UniProtKB/TrEMBL annotation:
This is Uncharacterized protein. Residues 53-83, 112-138 have a biased composition (Basic and acidic residues). The lineage of its organism: Eukaryota, Metazoa, Chordata, Craniata, Vertebrata. Residues 53-138 are annotated as: Disordered.
């Protein structure tokens, strides 16, 4: 009689060992699946984070490009107005030099009195000839 319980004990041990082995295999498989899922989710979150940062950078890049364009426009406007002021100042200086040269009778790169009169006379003739019904145009 003692032998039966011993055989039963050995049979139960084998079945328990096999069940334990099966449990550990399933546990390892489940842990591996969880690790894979966790890694997948981590990658997904990182991808989303990277995409968000890229969008922010693009947005910042667009903002920076817009700001750069605005600065370039302002710079061009300033340069244009400075050029206009320079041209206006040069014209004013040229006209005042012409007047000074005409008044003194000298020729300082400007027209003489005679040249100025000829220009005015030609201009007057042109204006008079372009008026309809004027005697000069008949």
């Amino acid at each position: 009689m003692c032998r039966v319980p011993e055989q039963l004990r050995e049979s139960v041990k084998r079945r328990l060992a096999a069940a334990a082995e099966e449990i550990f295999e399933l546990l390892e498989k489940t842990i591996a699946e969880y690790e894979e899922e966790s890694e997948r989710q981590r990658r997904t979150l990182l991808d989303q984070l990277l995409l968000q940062r890229q969008r922010e950078k693009r947005g910042q890049g667009q903002e920076l490009r817009q700001e750069l364009r605005e600065r370039q426009v302002k710079t061009r406007d300033r340069e244009d107005s400075a050029k206009t002021r320079t041209r206006t100042g040069a014209k004013t200086r040229t006209e005042s030099e012409a007047r000074t040269g005409t008044e003194t009778g000298g020729k300082t790169g400007a027209r003489t009195k005679t040249e100025g009169r000829r220009d005015r006379q030609e201009r007057d003739k042109t204006v008079a000839s372009s008026r309809p019904g004027d005697k000069a145009s008949l």
